[in-house]
């Protein structure tokens, strides 16, 4: 009875279970005689199922599943990014956003600000026109930039701030003035919403007052601007400086520091109109009403035609140098600029004076104009009036000319020259 119970599913010894499993496997493998539908017989042998594992196939399936998961995640992220960009682009291209940026610019610059068409992309902002209007108490009257591009970083696009490498404009124009009354400037505060390495304008011009009557104008220069803690640094490259009553001087380069009530000229290098020699200006210009300023002027082999009025420029011919020149500036005057230049020259020629033919005959000079090797004097020019004082011209030991010369505003020639000739040269 106990044996029947063990066969029917009771307690079975381990050896019996192993034997049964082995017999079952062998039974499955035994050939079997089968009869086909046409009556013929055949022996069929069952194939043993493969039970060995295949790691390379399983690993391939795992890689395929991981790739599908990654692709799904990437697609979700791409769709999320596109949706986010679309949301921010719609938000930033609304007038409310551009109005908010204009309000922040107005707060930083303390001016009235007006924007043209304002277009936002993920990597920047394009504004057709930016116009700033100063207050009556500011030396800035108005400032306009055209075709402005803001090189904005991608993180700032999502954060809503204005940060990046630069803000650039194709053209710009500034009109400055001397305010009749000047309020004490408020302390500068750093604006965290506007952080750029520099500001740039490819073609910039500036004038004091009306562009036609302005005593000083800067034309077509490349402007770079750097905001610092207590000042704004301006760097000029190329362009020209137009001085009323003097002419146009080509700008090689220059650096200016704009403070609250003055402009410090760290250095401006100019090429003279004839292209001969350089003029370097430095020191500070006051922006206070009624104030006069004096700049240091250094001249290096400058043609006299570039600093004298036309009449004197055709009488004294040559190039002069000076380390102690100065420029007096009164921007509220019709004749705002006065140039004072104590000069020397290694050689200078004299022409158009009645005494020239007599000197050439006495000294037996065959050249068209006599030359002098020892030259010194002082030039003072304001508008079209030019004075030369303490003039000293010497040719070897043969002749010395000294005295003063002037050209009035209407072109009249005045002065007194003394001529001394070595008696040994008189025939």
Q: What topology emerges from the helices and strands here?
A:
Elements lengths: L1 H6 L6 H16 L2 E4 L5 E4 L10 H38 L2 H15 L2 E4 L2 E4 L2 E10 L6 E13 L1 H6 L2 E15 L17 E15 L7 E12 L4 E6 L2 E4 L3 E12 L3 E10 L6 E9 L6 E11 L6 H4 L2 E14 L7 E9 L2 E3 L4 H9 L7 E2 L1 E9 L2 E11 L3 E9 L5 E9 L6
Parallel strand pairs: 7-8
Antiparallel strand pairs: 1-2, 3-5, 4-5, 5-6, 6-7, 8-9, 9-10, 9-11, 10-12, 11-12, 12-13, 13-14, 14-15, 15-16, 16-17, 16-18, 17-20, 18-19, 20-21, 21-22, 22-23
Instruction: Summarize the biggest pleated sheet.
Output: 21 strands, mixed
User: Which stretches are low in confidence, meaning pLDDT under 50 for 5 or more residues running?
Assistant: 1-9
Based on CA atoms alone, the radius of gyration comes out at 46 Å
**Oligomeric composition of the shown chains:** single chain
The percent range for helix content is 10-25%
Overall spatial form = elongated
Termini gap? 171 Å
Average pLDDT works out at 81
Elements, N to C (H/E): HHEEHHEEEEHEEEEEEEEEHEEEHEEEEE
Strand residue percentage: over 45%
What is the tally of beta strands?
23
- Our count of helices gives 7
Structural class designation = alpha+beta
Brief summary of the model shown:
The chain has helices at residues 2-7, 14-29, 55-92, 95-109, 154-159, 310-313, 355-363, and strands spanning 32-35, 41-44, 112-115, 118-121, 124-133, 140-152, 162-176, 194-208, 216-227, 232-237, 240-243, 247-258, 262-271, 278-286, 293-303, 316-329, 337-345, 348-350, 371-372, 374-382, 385-395, 399-407, 413-421. With 427 residues, it is α+β, with helices and mostly antiparallel strands.
């Amino acid at each position: 009875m106990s044996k029947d119970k063990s066969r029917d599913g009771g307690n079975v010894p381990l050896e019996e279970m192993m034997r049964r499993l082995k017999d079952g496997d062998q039974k499955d493998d035994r050939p079997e005689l089968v009869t086909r539908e046409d009556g013929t017989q055949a022996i069929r042998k069952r194939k043993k199922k493969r039970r060995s594992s295949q790691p390379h196939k399983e690993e391939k399936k795992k890689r395929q599943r991981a790739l599908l998961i990654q692709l799904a995640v990437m697609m979700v992220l791409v769709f999320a990014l596109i949706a986010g960009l679309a949301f921010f682009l719609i938000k930033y291209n609304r007038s409310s956003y551009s109005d908010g940026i204009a309000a922040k610019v107005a707060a930083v610059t303390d001016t009235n600000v007006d924007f043209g068409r304002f277009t936002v992309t993920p990597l920047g902002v394009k504004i057709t026109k930016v116009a700033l209007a100063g207050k009556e108490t500011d030396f800035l009257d108005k400032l306009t930039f055209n075709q402005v591009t803001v090189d904005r970083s991608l993180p700032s696009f999502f954060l809503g701030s204005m940060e990046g490498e630069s803000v650039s404009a194709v053209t710009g124009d500034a009109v400055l003035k001397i305010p009749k009354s000047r309020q004490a400037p408020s302390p500068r505060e750093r604006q965290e919403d506007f952080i750029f390495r520099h500001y740039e304008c490819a073609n910039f011009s500036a004038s004091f007052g009306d562009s036609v009557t302005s005593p000083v104008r800067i034309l077509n220069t490349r402007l770079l601007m750097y905001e610092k803690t207590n000042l704004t640094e301006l760097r000029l490259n190329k362009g020209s400086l137009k001085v009323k009553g003097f002419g146009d001087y080509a700008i090689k380069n220059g650096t200016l520091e704009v403070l609250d009530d003055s402009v410090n000229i760290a250095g401006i290098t100019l090429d003279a109109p004839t292209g001969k020699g350089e003029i370097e200006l430095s020191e500070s210009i006051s922006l206070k009403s009624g104030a006069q300023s004096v700049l240091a002027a250094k001249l290096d082999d400058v043609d006299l035609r570039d600093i004298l009025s036309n009449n004197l420029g055709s009488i004294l011919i040559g190039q002069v140098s000076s380390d102690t020149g100065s420029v007096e500036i009164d921007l509220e005057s019709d004749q705002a600029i006065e140039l004072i230049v104590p000069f020397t020259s290694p050689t200078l020629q004299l022409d158009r004076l009645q005494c020239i033919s007599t000197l050439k005959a006495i000294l037996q000079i065959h050249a068209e104009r006599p030359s002098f090797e020892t030259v010194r004097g002082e030039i003072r020019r304001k508008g079209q009036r030019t004075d030369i004082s303490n003039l000293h011209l010497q040719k070897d030991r043969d002749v010395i000319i000294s005295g003063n010369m002037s050209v009035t505003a209407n072109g009249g020639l005045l002065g007194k020259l003394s001529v001394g000739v070595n008696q040994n040269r008189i025939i």
